[in-house]
Specification:
Blueprint (H helix, E strand, L loop, with lengths): L1 E6 L9 H32 L4 H4 L2 E8 L2 E8 L2 E4 L2 E4 H7 L1 E4 L6 E4 L17 E6 L4 E6 L5 E6 L1 E4 L6 H29 L1
Helix pairs in contact: 1-4
Length: 195
């Protein structure tokens, strides 16, 4: 999803060993802070959009600190295997998409009355009746006895964009120079105070 990386090898020419170590520690602290802030922001957005804490917890971060390169990677573990390939659910809600019928006539959406039952195949044959709506372009599956709607049948569903994935990355990028300089100054003062 996102990578917050700093390559500090070019900026180290002519820098003394003490400042080099301070700069490396500062870069590591900044990258860790920036990655954590991005992860926290995305998790908050997901919960606020009503997508649930479980999906929010699928946003993860890794941190790597090797000589010359420091990086935090924020990524999604909410991957779904589909016939067309792997789909990242967080990316889907970050961009919006249209879900269309691949095989068959309709997408089946369980309504509140269906409770925990997610498929009309769970009912006995003849227990549900098809009622066409919108001129047959959509329909309802209702119980045969009392006509309680259990499932909505539609040809396609539009999932609107509900997350701003790029906004927090842009904010971090805009403030990167200033934040890194502040982190460097603080680290240098800590080192100077401890000497």
């Amino acid at each position: 999803m996102s990578l917050v990386a700093i390559d500090i090898t070019n900026g180290l020419a002519g820098v003394g060993e003490a400042d080099r170590q301070v700069l490396e520690r500062s870069a590591a602290a900044w990258a860790l802070h920036a990655g954590s802030a991005l992860k926290r922001n995305l998790r908050t957005q997901i919960v606020a959009a009503g997508l649930g804490r479980r999906l929010g917890n699928a946003v993860r971060m890794t941190f790597r600190d090797v000589p010359g390169v420091v990086e935090s990677t924020v990524f999604s573990k909410a991957l779904l295997k589909r016939p067309g390939g792997i789909t990242d659910l967080i990316q889907v809600f970050g961009e919006g998409t249209t879900i269309r019928v691949r095989r068959g006539l309709f997408l089946v959406i369980a309504l509140k009355a269906a409770g925990r039952i997610r498929s009309p195949l769970s009912f006995e044959k003849g227990a549900l009746v098809f009622l066409p709506i919108e001129g047959g372009r959509a329909g309802l599956l209702v119980t045969a006895k009392n006509h309680v709607p259990m499932f909505l049948l539609i040809r396609q569903a539009r999932l609107r964009k509900r997350l701003d994935l790029q906004g927090p990355i842009d904010v971090i990028s805009q403030h990167a120079d200033q934040d890194l300089l502040e982190e460097f100054t603080e680290e240098r003062q800590r080192v100077g105070a401890g000497a």
